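Quick one: structure for this chain?
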Amino acid sequence: MAYETIDFKADGPVARIILNRPDRLNSFTRQMHEEVRDALADLGDARVLVLTGAGRGFCAGQDLNDRAVAPGQAVDLGETVQQCWNPLIRTLTSLPQPVIARVNGVAAGAGANIALACDIVVAAKSAKFIQSFSAIGLIPDSGGTWALPRLVGQARALGLALTGEPLPADKAEEWGLIWKAVDDDALDTEVDVVSQKLASLPPLGLAAIKEMIRSSWQYSLDEELKRQAGAMRRLGFTEDYREGVAAFLEKRQAKFVGR
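Got it. Here's what it folds into:
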């Protein structure tokens, strides 16, 4: 697919998707959804995915000028959510690769919740997270009503969702909404450090960590302990575990192959 609304690179250990509609703060149209979906299905041998936006914003969510959601006689927003936003969130959260959100500017509406669906969020201190749904009579979709209370608690989730008040990146870090807020001029360096670190680690182990933590909400402690034993059994038989232990004992850099 020839991309018009995103830039995509996946020719090494770190794949990058750049939402590229800077004049519209990288807000989504049907076309952008299709292009992102296509890119996510073609990550090749990449061990890490970085998702970011072009220009001064990360993503402003849904482009309200898109004909698919423009108010007319009847607009089925549920259909748009089911066909576009839900599949995107499910894909980001279920990819075996760790996903890093590089939040370079405003992340609003569904754009904020796309970032929160990523595994690690690194934001420039000038960035803001805005649950902008209440101003137009909607609810935080794209996983927002699920993620917010789990990340910051019910009181803060309700405050953010009901008022739509912008949350600066440094406060988002303090509240535990994101992993880290850094000076704007340090954003690329920090993202590169994190992505290269993750790309150097055993991919099967990282995929298991991601899946176990994301699914743990549905299990009791006893059930989770049993799941942990099963995961440790499986991972303990991998080549990467043997290589990791050997490299540690021999005081050398490990080379992991994903087997």
